[in-house]
Structures are given as C-alpha cells and as structure tokens.
Design a protein that fits this description.
Blueprint: E1 4-9, H1 13-24, E2 28-34, E3 48-50, E4 63-66, H2 73-83, E5 87-90, H3 97-110, E6 114-117, H4 124-134, E7 141-151, H5 161-177, E8 181-189, E9 198-205, E10 210-216, E11 218-230, E12 233-238, E13 243-248, E14 268-269, H6 278-293, H7 301-320, E15 324-325
Parallel strand pairs: 1-2, 1-4, 2-3, 4-5, 5-6, 7-10
Antiparallel strand pairs: 7-11, 8-9, 8-15, 9-10, 11-12, 12-13, 13-14
Helix pairs in contact: 2-3, 3-7, 5-7
Length: 332
C-alpha cells in the first residue's frame, strides 16, 4: 500500500489526537506538524515541525489536517485548495455560513478532495443507528432528541457551546434523517462570556420531522445521547456508555398506516459491531478515499457548510427570539 504523506496544522487537543492517530495508521506517514507555539512541537520529536502552513509547501503532501481555531480555518483551507492539497478540516468548518461556503466552493473549483472532521458520525452506537435507520428497519421516523452536556474543557476560546458542541447534533440529525434542517427556534445563555455556555433549540427538518437539542458545558458530568422516535419504537444511542438501546412500540398501526398510539415492549440492547476509535476510522476513510476507494461515510464540505449555516441560524434565532430559516447549500 502506498503511504500517504500527511501533515497537521494546529496542535491543540484535536490536532494532537489527529497527529498521533495518523502517525500510528498503516498507509499514512506523518511528515510534518505546524503550530505557532514551538513548545507543542516537542510532542513529535521525530517529525518536521514548523510554525505555519506556508513552510509545508515543499513537502509534497497527499493531505493536511486543519485543526487550528475555527476563525483561521478559511485562511488555511483556501491556501491548501490553491496549492492542490486535499484537506481534512476540523469542525466547525468555519465560524460563519458565508466562510464555510467559500471554503466549499474553493475546493470544488480546484477539483481537490476535502472533508470535515465531524467525528461523532464514527462513534459505534451512532454508526449502527444510522445503518438501521437508513436500511428502513424501524419504519417511519417521527422525532429526534439530542443531549450533549459536560464540564467546560477550557480548550475552546473562540466560539460558544453552539459551534463547539451543538453543531455535532445539528449534523447528526440531518445525517440520520437524510434531510437538512429548514428552520430553528432557540434560546441561549451566557454565564461567563463572551460566548453562550448553554443552548437549547428545536429544529424542523425538510419533510416535517422535528428535532430537539440541548447542549451545555455547565454540567459536572458527561452526557451524550441521541434518541430517535420511530414507528417501531425509540432508539437511544449513548456514546458515553457505548450502547444502543431499542424500546419497542408494539402497537399495531391503524388502517392505511394511521397512527395507533404506542404500546411498550421489552427493551433490548442492540449488539454493536467492533469498531475502531472515531479518529482512527476517520483517517482510514480519508486514506482510502485518496487511494481511490470513494468518500463513503466522510462528511463533505457541503454537509459541513449546512451544519454551520444551521448553527448560525440557531444563534440568530436565540438573539432575536424568532424562528429562523436556514439558508444553506443542498446536501451532496
């Protein structure tokens, strides 16, 4: 197998995980890291280290991870697109919908492959939940509910909880339902400033499915669930526990598919296939895509732009107190 020459720009928490994952992955050679803080280079003593992306131009890279603060994503992404280097860009793709669209359009114009690092899609309970829903195993999808809570990590300084955490679930519900978000109502609260520390939203997907979200970093324990109400019952993916549970609805549908209410059945745990850690899966998919296997299961730049636009609309709705429509490119 050909080894892909790869680099990481930005050695915060995510960038460091990316770099270590790439260095350990068959078929990928981590040839360089870049960060403005030279002290962070010491974690990778056997890899060429630089302070900026510009110095990587001579390395003949096969792809590069952008894991810098989100406000700088557009600068680095446009530089990679212009240089013809494929990219994996950490979420959020950009801090605004307009910037996200510019990134997506730049790579499209250049004909260069790129993806967004929404690693939650690669969590084992969520990957299996998506497989079951997309396969039609549980009938009509009725509603989704997400909760993403925990203590403030101290790592995120340039965005609030919506663009740091809630954007994961904005992306997940569109992916699970196979439909983009069309409108949102929301409320947020700032406790310590300058950005929101807690956010609650209700979204309406194209086709009418409802999704309800809560995210905060003021909870002293981690809670990560996605709950899906379907015709055949409720499926709950818990990525902290690593479980997927089905609470069945045993009610028989009414005539002509009419709603017959719900009747509880015995809950069961759904067995999950063995799966690598999310960052590992993501880089395996990136490697395989660049070697010609197709981009299955990777998050496209268009999808990343949709998630940013929906989260931006959420913040607008919270600020204005009015339901806000989402204006975003179509999913591709």
């Amino acid at each position: 197998m050909k080894k892909l020459r790869a680099a990481v720009v930005g050695l915060g928490w995510a960038g460091t995980v990316h770099a270590r994952t790439m260095a350990a992955q068959p078929g990928i050679e981590l040839v360089a890291v870049a960060d403005l803080d030279p002290a962070k280079h010491t974690a990778f003593p056997d890899v060429s280290a630089f302070t900026g992306l510009e110095a990587l131009g001579h390395l003949d890279l096969d792809y590069c991870v952008i894991a810098t603060p989100s406000a700088t994503h557009e600068h680095y992404a446009l530089a990679l697109a212009a240089a013809g280097v494929p990219a994996l860009i950490e979420k959020p793709l950009a801090p605004t919908g307009a910037a996200a669209r510019r990134i997506s359009e730049a790579f499209t114009r250049a004909g260069i492959f790129a993806a967004v690092g929404h690693t939650e899609r690669h969590q084992a309970p969520l990957a299996e939940l998506a497989r079951l829903l997309h396969g039609g195993d549980f009938g009509e999808l009725w509603q989704l509910t997400t909760r993403r809570q925990g203590p403030y990590s101290g790592r995120i300084l340039d965005v609030g909880v919506a663009l740091d955490l809630l954007i994961h679930d904005v992306d997940l519900v569109s992916w699970l339902a196979g439909e983009p978000i069309r409108s949102v109502t929301a409320a947020t609260r700032v406790l310590a400033g300058p950005f929101e520390d807690t956010a609650t939203a209700s979204t309406v997907l194209q086709g009418g499915v409802l999704a309800h979200h809560h995210a905060d970093w003021i909870t002293p324990y981690r809670h990560r669930t996605v709950q899906v109400h379907t015709q055949a019952g409720v499926l709950t993916a818990d990525t902290v526990a690593g479980s997927l549970t089905h609470h069945p609805n045993t009610a028989v549908p009414g005539g002509a598919g009419g709603f017959a209410g719900v009747r509880p059945g015995e809950a069961r745990l759904i067995a999950l296939p063995e799966r690598e850690a999310p960052f590992t899966v993501q880089h395996q998919l990136m490697r395989d895509a660049l070697l010609g296997a197709g981009s299955r299961s990777l998050v496209s730049l268009a999808e990343g732009a949709v998630a940013v636009a929906a989260t931006e609309a959420l913040l607008t709705a919270a600020a204005t107190g009015h339901s806000t429509s989402v204006s975003a490119p179509a999913l591709v």
